């Protein structure tokens, strides 16, 4: 089964593109949502996180204390690397289990913002990068994330791998730039992946 990764920086519209594939009947693994699930439900990982970041990592109700963890890692690259180093291997295992459950599907998609940073690209056969120029991303994010300032958004973007590098490393680019229609691009890729699976 073909495993296709889909990535791109904040505000490019990865999730919109992933949903289009989902509407075509393709299973989509949402790395961000699954990472949250794994952090809550994988007992071994929970113990590793508490050992690394303290009891406050989880609330009394057993939920991940996101604001506490964010306060530790946001401006501390070493601690962020430590967090990712604990979480990403468990998410990779979860993805492999999930893929086995999708038997009979022509291909699957894994949506991940940190496709390269987490080494998740190594599990993929091909990568799609979704691209949008910075001004379009800023406009979208200021409308969507009303709690964030432009400065906040630029700080997040500055910490992510550059779009140029993501595009250079990807087999396919979907342009979600408000200039080109996205659906025809998705349908073209879908047809390619189906024909690849039938060869």
TrEMBL record:
- Which keywords, in A-to-Z order, does the entry hold? ATP-binding, Coenzyme A biosynthesis, Cytoplasm, Kinase, Nucleotide-binding, Transferase
- Under the cellular component aspect of Gene Ontology, which terms does the record hold? cytoplasm
> Record's InterPro entries?
Depp_CoAkinase, P-loop_NTPase
CDD domains under this entry?
DPCK
GO molecular-function terms, A-Z: ATP binding; dephospho-CoA kinase activity
- State the source organism's domain of life: Bacteria
Q: Name one Pfam family in it.
A: CoaE
- The primary location reported for this protein is cytoplasm
Give binding positions for ATP.
11-16
Write down the EC number.
2.7.1.24
Q: What does this protein do?
A: Catalyzes the phosphorylation of the 3'-hydroxyl group of dephosphocoenzyme A to form coenzyme A.
Recorded protein name is Dephospho-CoA kinase
Please report the organism this UniProt entry assigns to the protein: Pontibacter ummariensis
Q: Its encoding gene is what?
A: coaE
């Amino acid at each position: 089964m073909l495993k296709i990764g889909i990535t791109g920086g904040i505000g490019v519209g990865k999730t919109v593109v992933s949903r289009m594939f989902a509407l075509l009947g393709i299973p989509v693994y949402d790395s961000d949502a699954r990472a949250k699930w794994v952090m809550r439900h994988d007992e071994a990982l929970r113990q590793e996180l508490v050992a690394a970041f303290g009891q406050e990592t989880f609330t009394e109700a057993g939920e991940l204390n996101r604001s506490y963890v964010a306060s530790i890692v946001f401006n501390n690259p070493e601690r962020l690397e430590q967090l990712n180093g604990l979480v990403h291997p468990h998410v990779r295992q979860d993805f492999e289990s999930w893929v086995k459950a999708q038997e009979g599907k022509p291909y699957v998609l894994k949506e991940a913002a940190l496709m390269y940073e987490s080494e998740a690209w190594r599990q993929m056969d091909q990568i799609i990068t979704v691209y949008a120029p910075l001004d379009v991303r800023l406009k979208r994010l200021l409308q969507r994330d009303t709690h964030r300032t432009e400065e906040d958004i630029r700080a997040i973007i500055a910490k992510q791998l550059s779009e140029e590098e993501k595009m250079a490393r990807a087999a396919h680019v979907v342009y979600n730039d408000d200039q080109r229609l996205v659906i025809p691009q998705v349908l073209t890729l879908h047809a390619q992946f189906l024909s690849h699976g039938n060869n």
